[in-house]
Here is the input.
Amino acid sequence: MGKYFDELEKDYRIKEGLKACMNCGVCTAVCPAAEFYKYNPKNIVNVVARKDDAEIEELLKSDTIWYCGECMSCVTRCPRGNAPGLVVMALRKLSMKTGLYLNSEKGRQQYVLVKDLCTNILEHGYCIYPRNFDYAHHPEFGTVGEWTNNNLDEIHRRLGSNLDGDGPGGLRKIPQESLDQLKKIFDVTGATELMDKIFADAADEAEKRGLSQDEYFEEVYHADNGHHLNQ
Amino acid sequence: MIIEGKQKIWADYQKEIPDDHYFYVRSCIRQSFFPASEVVFLDITRNKLGKDFFENPYHTTCGGIAYHSDAIPQETAMTIIARQFALMHESGYENYVCSCITSFGCYTETLETWREFPELEAKIRQFLWDSCRKELVKPKYLAHASDIIYKFRNEIAAKAMFRLVEAKTGRPLRVVEHIGCHYAKMFPSKGVGGAEYPYVLAGMIEAWGGEVIDYPERRQCCGFGFRQYFVQANRGYSLSNTYKKFESMEPYKPDFIITNCPGCPYFLDRWQYVVAEQTGKTYGENGFGIPVLTYEEVAGLVFGYNPWDLGLQLHQVAVEPLLDKMGIPYDPAMKYKGVNGKELGTPAAPQNIRFK
Ligand code: SF4
Ligand code: SF4
Here is the structure.
């Protein structure tokens, strides 16, 4: 027992997702992340189950916990009712809270995710907002994606969306009253606190590297030290 | 024997799906990438089947993509969900249906976690009151929108203009069904057919005349992976998963793929394009890819909607080989036009995958 495990234990995803593991490795066998990255959900479950703070701290600092894709395929298969994907989510939360996520390349990517997704939610009421989804950052959007970007309003009108319009319909403008409520939800449930922390950490990291905020974003978005793959 | 076994498992996982009166919530991804699918879903349910599907314009994202990218805490996601439930109640509904599979997973997880830990539900109830002055009333029934089309698959078949068969030969089309992971992998009893033999899409395929393909990686994730796609450095994860699926399904020569998650068709479509452009490999016939459709698009084709009203022009993998097989007429000149035939130019042709 120790301070990290005590924190983890409060997380409902640990209460739900960590029972007795019998080390069968089924989660690892079915896991798409384990095939691609140097990643093994069975080992993660084991470390947390051992409640050893030194080992947990290593995990919190590592790239390892950021490899999971949260597909939850492991949950279906675990014969003991564990949910390694949920255990990983609890570890990620603690890694951000303690600042240990800054020790890993994949951990630092949380800046990109928090900035992009939380901005979309608070400003537009959507996780994905098509005016912020650009071909330049998503070349796999393809030639059709490029054409879509260039004709966004016309295409959505053609297909019956209500892009940024009033009333119901696809991609309608979310009323200000709803956006205000989302902001209040963020304030009372800890999302604003998390955003503030991640942004403050990113400002420090950018300064350490002599980068502007935008340059730091791009670095985090693209950085790949070549040590992640399971090859 | 094996078939009987499967049928028994399917029978164990037949969920009750109410007939009518639903509070409908949209999907961020579906609205962005397959906007016509939601339009068609509402047109089919409201106008063709005569059902009541209500949309409250004050509803928002469920926050699910941010939650599974670990960008918002669990309490935040749950309170956003609680707000959506409160809107449902204020609108006078108790059946809740969502367009997104990530949402469906989040709603299911939330309701199940509250059931197991009532103190957490109480905490979220208070958060909702403190932030929005709203009262949490949980839905009596939760469905994914594909459950609804599944439920009415036979009614749709009875009104079908086209079937999932090759018009010239009568051969049933070979169809890959791809179920979004968060539909039933966490809580199998919440999905039609469970996680092992999900029947929600297979049922549509069979009712509309097609043949379901069983292939080794049938239950493999499309590879979205949330952070594994949104951050460019991680995208190889997403691409590799799709590649693995296509290599596995290729020998079975699928005519098309049907999906119920809004993200999967985007990835299965776009990564085929990337595989082709990077390696020259294509998985369809004659240099085409394998068309990947939403279940709403498939229902729309069966019903006889104009393919360009269904938004099939937003797919990078050309859908024309499928339309030709099914004998569906279309005007190639209108594919990329705007309202009233407005000229919008055409997308550039890719190098390695046939586009028309
Ligand atoms: S949720 Fe994570 S650990 Fe579980 S199978 Fe998916 S990628 Fe692997
Ligand atoms: S499948 Fe379950 S019991 Fe088996 S190693 Fe993974 S977590 Fe442990």
Notes: The radius of gyration of chain A is 20 Å. The CA atoms of residues 71 and 85 of chain A lie 8 Å apart. Residues A 30-33, 41, 68-74, 84-85, 88 surround iron/sulfur cluster (ligand 1) (CB under 6 Å).
